[in-house]
């Protein structure tokens, strides 16, 4: 065969082998990834058509705090008497203010101070107001609904802009909180609950309702909306004092000089904000369209304690969005109290997803709750339940030898006990322990009931004749084991256990129908093997006992023993 033919043959074989390997590689199955419990829950969700969620940039805008800080600074620092260079003809401003006054219950009159504040906002805060106008699209429809309900001027909606910059979690330096900046006592006066989990001053709906009630009550006192604004900021008492100091005059601009410094710029800031919202387009201030409004969300009452993290994982909603929609919850946890309903606000499409899969969602929440570590206690009902299945509890004692560097806290953590228990068990008054010191550690464990006790505990078990054995026999059938305890303590414990076993009453059912057992020895004792002991030397210490007796009683196959072992011994009759 020629070299050329041989080469072609080898090439064909190589191509065939390569093709076979490629085919085998193509049909290799991908490893199956094990699904988590969360994924398995979500895979069974009934899903509806997805609507768009709040954009992340929009969410950042809604939760931004710099607008609130800027607005507070303006109210405190802007001087109405300081001229501002900005191109806005006075005549044009006067005309626009008249138009506003004609359709508003507020006394909107031109003044040099108001002109300076309007020009200051237009010059220094155009971007801030553009952002505020975008956020307003979310809140203003809800504000207007409640204001109309209480016959409060619709323009009052601008009050929330200067109070909180429309940040539901805004908090002033004196503790005023929420969209409408309620102080704690005023909030309680209007039934706004504040506790460890919830601050209803941050709830847009409830806080707006309370604000409408409060503003209505202030109007009933003063009968003038300008004075209502001033008293909302400074308090009714300070406004009343300013009226007295102004010889009974009740026009805001006439008593303004007698009001607190912050309140002197408060009403002008409100009127300037109203002007910019009404004539912003004429000054080139526009806003982006909000992707969602308050009416495009809805609430559902929760039936379990849930965290925002759990809701976010289940519904694929960012935690930041949940925080914005539910600012009422201080710890990002929705509590569950049987007689106090708590609600979760979500976009409407997510409400549908939640309600369609409510059982699966609560199953996941329960599953997460089961993973939480709990304290372990056993009461009488638990003991009865354990007895019915042939179990009982037993206190097991261990000993820890203190080493250099050990402290009570680390020892307690190691054994899963409390420091206070550790100190009580060992009569330690302070926190000082010493290297080499032995500390008792008590642990409650679940063990099998002895056969006789199990028969008595089971209600449905029928009594039958059994050959009873003294309680001490149970101790004799226990496997011998080496321990880490020092010899004196072990001997003392062993003697106590034997004495208790000898004193323990024999089960009544068994005693009535049993005869005296025949044993090779009458009184059982435990011997702790010492260093240097052998079976022969131990047998010599107990008259009549042989090495074979010791091996038989303790089920030893050889003669190997070690210090610390417990051996059953007896005096032969």
TrEMBL record:
Residues annotated as domain LysM: 398-441, 525-569
Q: Which UniProt keywords apply?
A: Signal
Where is the signal peptide, in residue numbers? 1-19
Which Gene3D superfamilies does this chain map to?
1.10.530.10, LysM domain (3.10.350.10)
Q: Spell out the SUPFAM superfamilies in the cross-references.
A: LysM domain, Lysozyme-like
Q: What PROSITE patterns does the database record attribute to this sequence?
A: LYSM, TRANSGLYCOSYLASE
Q: Which InterPro entries match?
A: LysM, LysM_dom_sf, Lysozyme-like_dom_sf, Transglyc_AS, Transglycosylase_SLT_dom_1
Known CDD domains for this protein? LysM, MltD-like
- Pfam families in UniProt: LysM, SLT
Q: Does the keyword Signal apply?
A: yes
Instruction: Spell out the PANTHER family in the cross-references.
Output: LYSM DOMAIN-CONTAINING GPI-ANCHORED PROTEIN 2, MEMBRANE-BOUND LYTIC MUREIN TRANSGLYCOSYLASE D
So what family is this one in?
Belongs to the transglycosylase Slt family.
Mind telling me what this protein is named?
LysM peptidoglycan-binding domain-containing protein
């Amino acid at each position: 065969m020629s070299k050329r033919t041989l080469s072609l043959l080898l090439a064909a074989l190589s191509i065939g082998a390569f093709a076979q390997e490629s085919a085998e590689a193509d049909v290799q199955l991908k490893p199956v990834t094990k699904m988590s419990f969360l994924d398995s829950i979500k895979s069974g969700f009934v899903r509806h058509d997805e609507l768009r969620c709040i954009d992340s940039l929009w969410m950042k805008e809604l939760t931004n705090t710099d607008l609130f800080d800027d607005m507070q600074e303006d109210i405190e620092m802007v001087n109405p008497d300081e001229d501002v260079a900005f191109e806005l003809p006075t005549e044009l401003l006067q005309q626009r203010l008249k138009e506003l006054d004609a359709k508003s219950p507020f006394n909107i009159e031109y003044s040099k101070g108001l002109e300076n504040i309007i020009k200051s906002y237009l010059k220094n805060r155009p971007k801030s107001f553009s952002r505020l106008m975008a956020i307003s699209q979310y809140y203003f429809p809800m504000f207007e609904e409640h204001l109309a309900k209480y016959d409060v001027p619709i323009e009052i909606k601008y009050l929330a802009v200067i109070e909180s910059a429309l940040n539901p979690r805004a908090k002033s330096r004196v503790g005023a909180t929420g969209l409408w900046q309620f102080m704690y006592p005023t909030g309680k006066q209007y039934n706004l609950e504040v506790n460890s989990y919830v601050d209803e001053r941050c709830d847009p709906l409830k806080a707006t309702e309370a604000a409408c009630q409060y503003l209505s009550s202030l109007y009933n006192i003063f009968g003038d909306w300008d004075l209502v604004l001033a008293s909302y900021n400074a308090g009714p008492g300070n406004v009343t004092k300013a009226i007295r100091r102004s010889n009974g005059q009740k026009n805001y601009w006439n008593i303004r000089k007698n009001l607190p410094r912050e309140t002197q710029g408060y009403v002008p800031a409100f009127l300037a904000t109203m002007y910019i919202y009404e004539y912003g387009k004429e000054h080139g201030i526009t806003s982006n369209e909000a992707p969602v409004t308050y009416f495009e969300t809805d609430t559902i009452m929760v039936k379990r304690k849930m965290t925002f993290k759990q809701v976010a994982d289940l519904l694929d909603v960012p935690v930041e969005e949940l925080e914005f929609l539910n600012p009422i919850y201080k710890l990002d946890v929705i509590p569950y109290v049987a007689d106090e309903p708590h609600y979760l606000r979500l976009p409407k499409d997510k409400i549908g997803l939640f309600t369609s899969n409510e059982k699966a969602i609560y199953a996941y929440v329960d599953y997460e709750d089961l993973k939480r570590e709990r304290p372990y206690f056993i009461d009488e009902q638990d003991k009865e339940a354990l007895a019915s299945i042939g179990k009982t509890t037993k206190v097991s004692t261990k000993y820890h030898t203190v080493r250099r560097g050990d402290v009570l806290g680390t020892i307690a953590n190691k054994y899963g006990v409390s420091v206070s228990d550790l100190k009580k068990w060992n009569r330690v008054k302070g926190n000082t322990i010493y290297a080499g010191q032995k500390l008792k550690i008590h642990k409650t464990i679940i063990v099998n009931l002895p056969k006789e006790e199990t028969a008595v505990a089971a209600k449905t078990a029928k009594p039958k004749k059994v050959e009873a054995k003294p309680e001490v026999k149970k101790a004799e059938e226990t496997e011998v084991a080496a321990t880490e305890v020092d010899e004196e303590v072990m001997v003392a414990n062993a003697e106590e256990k034997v004495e208790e076993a000898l004193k323990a009453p024999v089960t009544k059912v068994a005693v009535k129908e049993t005869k005296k057992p025949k044993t090779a020895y009458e009184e059982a004792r435990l011997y702790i093997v010492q260093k240097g002991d052998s079976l022969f030397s131990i047998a010599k210490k107990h008259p009549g006992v042989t090495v074979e007796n010791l091996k038989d009683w303790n089920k030893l196959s050889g003669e190997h023993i070690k210090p610390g072992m417990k051996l059953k011994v007896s005096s032969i009759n």
